[in-house]
Amino acid sequence: LGPAQSPGPHLSVPIHRPNIDPVSLLTFWNPPTTAQVTVELVPPNAAEGKDVLLRVHNLPANLLGCAWFKGTTINPRREIVSYAADSQEITPGFAHSGRETLYHNGSLLFQNISLEVERVIGQLRVYPELPKPNITSNNSDPVENVDSVVLTCEPQTQNTSYLWSVNSKSLPDSARLELSLDNRTLTLHGVTRNDTGPYECETWNLVSASRSDPFTLNVLYGPDAPTISPSDSYYRPGANLSLFCNSASNPPAQYSWLINGSPQPSSQELFIPNITVNDNGSYACLVYNPGTRLNKFTVKTITVS
């Protein structure tokens, strides 16, 4: 329907918001009429692939016809569909995609709404069904107190909120933790062995939510200064000497011993049966971390008398 074919006044009801593709409803009637035509979006937010209804209220009783257009201008090539009240005829327009249905009450149904084509229709914002997110890291093996790590919640989706948790709790207040403006990336400055996690990211919009699988950081640390046990330093001749060396380290440390500066077979434990006074001296445990390439050592003095 166009103004030239309509003897009565007409009303254009634009339904839009800035920077989006709007639609307009054009109605024609014979005077008098006083009610203001309004359009309700049902639902106000819809998931991609679902249906949405632009429900018309206060349509004039003396309606001659109505037409829906894409955009705010009355352009025949942007007409979606029109309705003539006298003949009850509904006619698809140039902009009809086959997924729009016009009812005799003027309401317009969009079926299988598309995020690309109808990203926003009027005040309706179309949200995608969110895929399951996953966490990626820019550093698979960060070194303690050396490296910073950036965790990213993938994929990036428009109109989506991101929420992080660690050890099944909200992120703690820490100067070492930094979120991006959209919360999609989490930066850990100067990682420590306590930052292994697990981490989870949750994505949500008004129609769906999804949570990632737990993600654990493999933080390389150590070796810490080794300890030698037992603490005993004095032994009787003929006793068995068994020393055990231990150091916190990731990956596990490599162990070696020196007795009075003389290298011994690599092992975490040193065993000497039936010791004599010749076994007096310094016993050094050396530890090496192949991941951090750091080493430490501890010396214990053994006296046999």
Automatic annotation (TrEMBL):
<dbReference type="InterPro" id="IPR050831">
    <property type="entry name" value="CEA_cell_adhesion"/>
</dbReference>
<dbReference type="GO" id="GO:0002682">
    <property type="term" value="P:regulation of immune system process"/>
</dbReference>
<dbReference type="GO" id="GO:1990782">
    <property type="term" value="F:protein tyrosine kinase binding"/>
</dbReference>
<feature type="domain" description="Ig-like">
    <location>
        <begin position="131"/>
        <end position="218"/>
    </location>
</feature>
<dbReference type="GO" id="GO:0007165">
    <property type="term" value="P:signal transduction"/>
</dbReference>
<dbReference type="InterPro" id="IPR003598">
    <property type="entry name" value="Ig_sub2"/>
</dbReference>
<dbReference type="InterPro" id="IPR013106">
    <property type="entry name" value="Ig_V-set"/>
</dbReference>
<dbReference type="InterPro" id="IPR036179">
    <property type="entry name" value="Ig-like_dom_sf"/>
</dbReference>
<dbReference type="InterPro" id="IPR007110">
    <property type="entry name" value="Ig-like_dom"/>
</dbReference>
<dbReference type="Pfam" id="PF13895">
    <property type="entry name" value="Ig_2"/>
</dbReference>
<keyword id="KW-0393">Immunoglobulin domain</keyword>
<dbReference type="Pfam" id="PF13927">
    <property type="entry name" value="Ig_3"/>
</dbReference>
<dbReference type="Pfam" id="PF07686">
    <property type="entry name" value="V-set"/>
</dbReference>
<protein>
    <recommendedName>
        <fullName>Ig-like domain-containing protein</fullName>
    </recommendedName>
</protein>
<dbReference type="GO" id="GO:0009986">
    <property type="term" value="C:cell surface"/>
</dbReference>
<dbReference type="InterPro" id="IPR003599">
    <property type="entry name" value="Ig_sub"/>
</dbReference>
<feature type="domain" description="Ig-like">
    <location>
        <begin position="223"/>
        <end position="303"/>
    </location>
</feature>
<dbReference type="GO" id="GO:0005886">
    <property type="term" value="C:plasma membrane"/>
</dbReference>
<keyword id="KW-0325">Glycoprotein</keyword>
<dbReference type="InterPro" id="IPR013783">
    <property type="entry name" value="Ig-like_fold"/>
</dbReference>
<keyword id="KW-0732">Signal</keyword>
<comment type="similarity">
    <text>Belongs to the immunoglobulin superfamily. CEA family.</text>
</comment>
